[in-house]
Amino acid sequence: MESVKGLGCGGGTNTLDALRLARTRLEKKPSSVNMHHIVVVSDAEDEYADALREIYLPYFKDHNVVFDFILIMSKDEQAACEKARKEGKTEWRYMMHDTLREVCEATGGEFSIVSNTEDIRSTVYLQGMRLCLPPGTE
């Protein structure tokens, strides 16, 4: 948790750069049990959903990576998204959320939405503590 507290924010969300860095670190120091777990905490305000699905999903599956995504979104934003979906509106950020959820599910990971500090703290803790198994493992 201390590492999370030390992170800053300054805009310019780029999920693909974060995943590129995680991939580099996994390749430099592979797991001795051939399992990896990536947890990304972000507002997901970028437009790279297709690349996430096309580049990273196959890589995650090939390298036994469980991908969790914690989406930071206020309750007001959540309500606005839900309203827009019900009205049939499509927007790049809704597509990104759907893609993130899809990639999490396909790798045995979890997609969570948090809106306050306590939610973030408990969700990061729980995702860090849970047993991660490759997709299809019971």
Structure description:
This protein has a 3-stranded parallel β-sheet with strand order 1-2-3, sandwiched between helices. The protein is an alpha/beta fold and 138 residues long. It has helices spanning 2-5, 15-28, 49-62, 75-86, 92-106, 117-129; strands at 36-42, 65-72, 111-114. It is built from 6 helices and 3 strands; from the N terminus they run H-H-E-H-E-H-H-E-H.
Short description:
This protein is of the alpha/beta class and 138 residues long. Helix content is 52%, strand content 14%. It starts with a helix and ends in a 9-residue tail after the last helix.
Key attributes of the depicted protein:
6 helices; 3 strands; 138 residues
